[in-house]
UniProtKB/TrEMBL annotation, chain A:
Keywords: Cell membrane, Cell projection, Cilium biogenesis/degradation, Cytoplasm, Cytoskeleton, GTP-binding, Lipoprotein, Magnesium, Membrane, Metal-binding, Myristate, Nucleotide-binding. It comes from the Eukaryota. This is ADP-ribosylation factor-like protein 6. PANTHER family: ADP RIBOSYLATION FACTOR-RELATED. InterPro entries: Arl6, P-loop_NTPase, Small_GTP-bd, Small_GTPase_ARF, Small_GTPase_ARF/SAR. GTP binds at residues 23-30, 71, 129-132. The lineage of its organism: Eukaryota, Metazoa, Chordata, Craniata, Vertebrata. It is a peripheral membrane protein. SMART domains: ARF, SAR.
Automatic annotation (TrEMBL), chain B:
This is BBSome complex member BBS1. Keywords: Acetylation, Cell membrane, Cell projection, Cilium, Cilium biogenesis/degradation, Cytoplasm, Cytoskeleton, Membrane, Olfaction, Protein transport, Sensory transduction, Transport, Vision. It comes from Takifugu rubripes (Japanese pufferfish). Part of BBSome complex, that contains BBS1, BBS2, BBS4, BBS5, BBS7, BBS8/TTC8, BBS9 and BBIP10. Interacts with the C-terminus of RAB3IP. Interacts with CCDC28B and ALDOB. Interacts with PKD1. It is found in: Cell projection, Cilium membrane; Cytoplasm, Cytoskeleton, Microtubule organizing center, Centrosome, Centriolar satellite. GO terms for molecular function: patched binding; smoothened binding. InterPro entries: BBS1, BBS1_N, Quinoprotein_ADH-like_sf, WD40/YVTN_repeat-like_dom_sf. Gene3D superfamilies: YVTN repeat-like/Quinoprotein amine dehydrogenase. The keyword Cell membrane applies. GO terms for cellular component: axoneme; BBSome; centriolar satellite; ciliary membrane. GO terms for biological process: non-motile cilium assembly; protein localization to cilium; protein transport; retina homeostasis; sensory perception of smell; visual perception.
Length: 192, 506
């Protein structure tokens, strides 16, 4: 870490990171973001997001600004307008919705082939959500169905989660934090 | 013909070739059975042979429940029968003479069609059999003579009795003779009709078509007959639109190969469309009807029966359904064909072709699960096929029929109007009369000059005329151009068969 970052760390100023939270409707994006917020700021009722909402939460070294996008079909064309700002992507999948796994794959492929994303080494965190549902697919199966092994030029990670209980979320966020600090260091190394 | 491929528009969500689903389009519906915003697929499964009739409910890719049906289903619809919360629809399954109503997938009510008049002779014969006055063999003879003569057909009981072997007859008579003879008709088609509001979750009446050529409208709560209409033939397919309390149209395809349109407050059909072939599919797109004929053709009609278009298809039609996407304002017709293809037509234009692994017998399009544009198909071999319309899919309205070429409508790159042209036009508009008079004056002068010259030629014996009628001289003058300079050409045709041409630039 550079001297300034250390100084910022002592002063309680954390590095800001913009994250896009994407995924189909009813996959649990808002619930996951809600879970990541401090417990006194969490909302009790989660309603379907209209358009998008901006949420903030902090980890030990980073301050995340999350664009929680609506997953409903008619709002999905809004996603691409925020690709430029995003420094990381959280993609949430409803592991219990086998029927719409193709739709999730389609949206993911569109995302990966978008000019604003395609040539950037942007970390993608997948949450295979709703693991509490009885006939949910495993995270391995989900990554198979979404053909995640084909993503060669971007760091990615998949976690099995249950957003209602908050299981598995921390692991994913830790990975994301590592990725972000690593890329910061890389940038600094390149600069110096 | 170039086929637009389906790969760019549809996502293959699910295919189970051994789902064991034997059904046809009227027995498929989509409904939010639990009120949780997730639509289930309801199927009245015909089973195989006379066994295994079932009411099946699919959630996502899996069968979530099934319950046995007593008889072969002829139609299945989901409808809201009351305004109670939570708003969950009931399911109506038509089979034989009854409509079975399910609420929360439990049997709730059974509606039976009113009985028909029984032949009095038949009744007497069975009365005698009950009292033991006649034996089964003479009963058979008497029933056969009634069947041949009477104008009122026999009841189902007598017909099944006549089909028995003599050894089984006695047992059959013993079993049935105590019950009174009843003659029942059967339901051929069932649809829903909104009662008073056009909301998606408005209360709906059931509309039933029967073998006895009637159409009944049932009250959604009390299941009493609200309205009864008569058709000239037995209905096979039905399409209903409108609201019962306001105005409605029931379009019925009948077994005599005609389509009738029934309206509110008229017991008899209002319009009749006579088809050249038997209808095998009937769907409504907006205000128009699309009818599939068994001669591999598709016809478009207005709702008053005016024919709009006809196209021929590459294979016989197996089933038809409407594709309605209100969120995108898109309506089209899905036609299942025997050559394992499903065609999508908007009016007479083929928009997309979907190839299926097996011939499709049943098509249902709508919201399934949480996805609005889902196409569900059951195949001949009992498979279940689910496709989802891509969010980015766009259908091009390409006219496949030969017509005027596209270049015809391309505008030519003509020059802009010059100032001179506009000035000239203004002048013509303002002093049109003066110009006309000047022209007439000049024309008269020209004529006078011509006549003088002609006279002079005659007087000086220049013989300006052809000397004999068999060798004529022809002159043709053509003026080309709009001015101020003209091209004037004269064609002389003389006896020497040589054409002289002169061009004068004026």
């Amino acid at each position: 870490m550079g001297l300034f970052d250390k100084l910022a760390g002592w002063l309680g100023l954390k590095k800001e990171v913009n994250v896009l939270c994407l995924g189909l409707d009813n996959s649990g994006k808002t619930t996951i973001i809600n879970r990541l917020k401090p417990s006194n700021a969490q909302a009790q009722d989660i309603v379907p997001t209209i358009g998008f909402s901006i949420e903030k939460f902090k980890t030990s070294s980073l301050s995340f600004t999350v664009f929680d996008m609506s997953g409903q079909g008619r709002y999905r064309n809004l996603w691409e307008h925020y690709y430029k700002e995003g420094q990381a992507i959280i993609f949430v999948i409803d592991s219990a919705d086998k029927l719409r796994m193709v739709v999730a794959k389609e949206e993911l492929d569109t995302l990966l082939n978008h000019p604003d994303i395609k040539h950037r080494r942007i970390p993608i965190l997948f949450f295979a959500n709703k693991m509490d549902v009885r006939d949910a697919l495993s995270s391995v199966k989900v990554s198979q169905l979404l053909c995640l092994e084909n993503i060669k030029d971007k760091p990615w990670h998949i976690c099995a989660t249950d957003a209602l209980k908050g299981e598995g979320l921390q692991e994913g966020v830790d990975w994301l934090q590592d990725q972000m600090t690593q890329s910061n260091q890389n940038n600094q190394n390149m600069r110096s | 013909m170039e086929l637009s491929s389906d790969a760019g528009k549809w996502l293959d969500a699910h295919y189970d070739p051994v789902a064991g689903l034997y059904t046809f389009s009227p027995c498929m519906d989509l409904a939010d059975l639990n009120g949780d915003g997730e639509n289930r697929l309801l199927v009245g499964d015909l089973g195989s042979g006379s066994l295994g009739m079932k009411l099946k409910v699919y959630r996502g890719t899996a069968l979530s429940s099934e319950s046995a049906l007593l008889d072969l289903p002829t139609g299945l619809v989901s409808f809201f029968m009351d305004l109670h919360e939570p708003r969950v629809p009931a399911v109506a399954v038509a089979s034989g003479p009854c409509v079975y109503i399910y609420k929360n997938l439990r049997p709730y009510f059974k509606f039976t069609l009113p009985g028909l008049d029984v032949n009095s002779l038949e009744q007497d014969v069975w009365q005698q059999a009950r009292e033991g006055q006649i034996d089964p063999l003479s009963l058979k003879e008497m029933l056969e003579s009634i069947r041949n003569k009477a104008d009122v057909p026999l009841s189902v009981r007598s017909l099944s009795f006549l089909s028995l072997e003599p050894s089984e007859m006695d047992e059959f008579v013993q079993l049935h003779k105590q019950q009174p003879v009843k003659r029942q008709t059967v339901i051929t088609c069932i649809q829903t009709l909104k009662k008073s509001t056009s909301d998606d979750d408005g209360v709906s009446c059931l509309v039933i078509g029967t073998e006895s050529c009637h159409v009944y409208v049932l009250d959604p709560e009390a299941f009493i007959i609200l309205s009864k209409m008569v058709l000239p033939s037995a209905p096979t397919m039905m399409n209903v639109t409108g609201q019962y309390d306001v105005e409605f149209r029931v379009t019925v395809a009948c077994r005599n190969g005609s389509i009738y349109v029934l309206r509110r407050e008229s017991e008899k059909p209002k319009y009749c469309i006579e088809l050249s072939s038997h209808p095998v599919g009937l769907v409504r797109v907006g205000k128009n009807l699309v009818v599939g004929g068994n001669d591999e053709s598709l016809h478009g009609f207005t709702q008053k029966g005016k024919k709009l278009w006809k196209i021929s298809l590459p294979a016989p039609i197996t089933t038809m359904a409407t594709m309605d996407l209100p969120t995108r304002g898109f309506q089209a017709v899905l036609v299942g064909l025997a050559n394992c293809e499903v065609h999508l037509y908007r009016d007479k234009n083929l928009l997309s072709t979907i190839r299926t692994p097996d011939a499709v017998t049943s098509i249902c399009f709508g919201r399934y699960g949480r996805e609005d544009g889902t196409l569900i198909m059951a195949t001949k071999g009992g498979g279940l096929l689910v496709k989802i319309l891509k969010r980015t899919a766009a259908f091009e309205d390409k006219d496949s029929t030969p017509g005027p070429p596209l270049t015809q409508s391309v505008r030519l790159n003509t020059h802009k109007k010059t100032k001179l042209y506009v000035d000239q036009m203004m002048r013509e508009r303002e002093s049109g009369t003066v110009m006309h008079r000047a022209f007439q004056m000049d024309l008269s002068r020209l004529r006078l000059a011509t006549a003088k010259a002609y006279l002079k030629a005659l007087e000086s014996s220049l013989t300006p005329m052809s000397s004999s009628l068999s060798e004529p001289l022809k002159m043709n003058a053509v003026v080309q151009g709009l001015g101020p300079s003209f091209n004037c050409s004269f064609h002389h045709t003389g006896l020497s068969l040589v054409t002289k041409e002169e061009h004068w630039l004026l």
